[in-house]
Design brief:
Elements (H helix, E strand, L loop, with lengths): L13 E9 L8 E9 L7 E3 L3 E2 L7 E3 L9 E6 L16 E9 L8 E10 L6 E3 L3 E2 L7 E3 L9 E6 L16 E9 L8 E10 L6 E4 L2 E2 L6 E4 L9 E6 L16 E9 L8 E10 L6 E4 L10 E4 L12
Parallel strand pairs: 4-8, 10-14, 16-20
Antiparallel strand pairs: 1-2, 3-5, 6-7, 7-8, 9-11, 12-13, 13-14, 15-17, 18-19, 19-20, 21-22
């Protein structure tokens, strides 16, 4: 209606009629003219971003707009390599390169607004627990590997001596006595990065073994120690002797020759792999069989009997003749 004209300029979206009135003057009558025009919806603005995240962390779209209502924003996602038909409102969780699309609905003043951004879900750092006890020479190295993120069945296990450069790591199991580093590498998976963990352990000298015995002997026969060992060198064995009734301070390297009860002690020196070994054995030196002869010549009645005695072992002057 003509009565709805106002001198106030319109600002809202809509179709309008503008009327201009030129007043009459001395020569011309009043002039009234009209024209139609429209105020259409403008294109709004939006700030839309999503930060890259690691696997297991939820993606969080950031949407800001001074023109459209962000509370009703529709956010959709797809793999960047896929076409637009793949957009879905389900947030992605797998590792990959993604494109997100936000749609802000039109309002009285601004058109519907669509914006996209790209982001990545990157592989996360996994976790591993590595347990390895110290061992003695000859035992098997048995590391225990636990991981809820990476496959332990394909673990690569390497060894090097403590103090060596990492370039010295080798998959060859160590066996000599020493201080070592063990490194385990778990392969990357769809969701987790390659993972490496180390642990320090030692291989200490083992307890050696020896078979040691000395046979009982008769007086006059040299005692002969019998020593056997699969771990230590018997050629450098130290054998010592003492009377069994004496304390250990009486041990001496001199072989006993007198009759008696003895204890022998053998010491095998340590080597690269085995500790020093000490073992004892008991033996006896027993009295030997003596020797002697007696001879009595025939005599006439009334003549004295004169036994002749001889012995290389016993005292003939203490002989009892009956």
């Amino acid at each position: 209606e003509d009565t709805e004209y106002s001198a106030d300029k319109p600002t809202a979206v809509g179709d309008y009629v503008a009327r201009v009135t030129l007043p009459e003057n001395d020569s011309y009558q009043q002039v009234v003219r009209t024209t139609e025009f429209s105020i259409t919806k403008a294109t709004g603005t939006v700030e839309f971003s999503i930060e890259d995240v690691k696997y297991g962390v939820e993606v969080k779209p950031q949407v800001k707009s001074d023109t459209n209502d962000v509370s009703t924003a529709i956010v959709e996602y797809k793999l960047t390599s896929e076409d637009d038909e793949s957009f879905t409102t389900v947030k992605p969780v797998k590792v990959g390169e993604y494109t997100a699309r936000v749609t802000l609905l039109a309002n009285e003043s601004y058109e519907q607004l669509v914006e996209t951004t790209t982001f990545s879900i990157k592989k996360a750092k996994g976790s591993v627990r590595l347990v390895l006890e110290n061992i003695v020479y000859g035992e098997i190295i048995s590391p225990e590997i636990y991981s809820e993120t990476n496959d332990v069945n394909t673990a690569v296990i390497e060894y090097k001596s403590v103090g060596e450069d990492d370039s010295a790591y080798s998959t060859t199991k160590v066996s000599a006595v020493g201080e070592y580093m063990l490194r385990v590498t778990l392969s990357e998976s769809e969701s987790y990065e390659q993972l490496t963990e180390t642990v320090e352990f030692s291989i200490t000298k083992a307890e050696g073994s020896v078979e040691f015995n000395i046979a009982d002997e008769r007086y006059g026969v040299e005692v002969t120690p019998q020593i056997k060992s699969d771990t230590n060198d018997v050629s450098t064995a130290i054998v010592e002797y003492k009377l069994t009734s004496e304390d250990d301070t009486s041990f001496t390297a001199a072989k006993p020759v007198k009759v008696g009860e003895y204890t022998a002690r053998v010491t095998l020196l340590s080597n690269e792999s085995y500790e020093k070994v000490v073992e004892t054995a008991t033996f006896s030196i027993e009295k030997a069989d003596g020797n002697g002869t007696i001879n009595v010549e025939d005599v006439f009645y009334g003549a004295p009997v004169s036994p002749e005695l001889a012995s290389g072992t016993n005292d003939v002057y203490k002989a009892l003749i009956e």
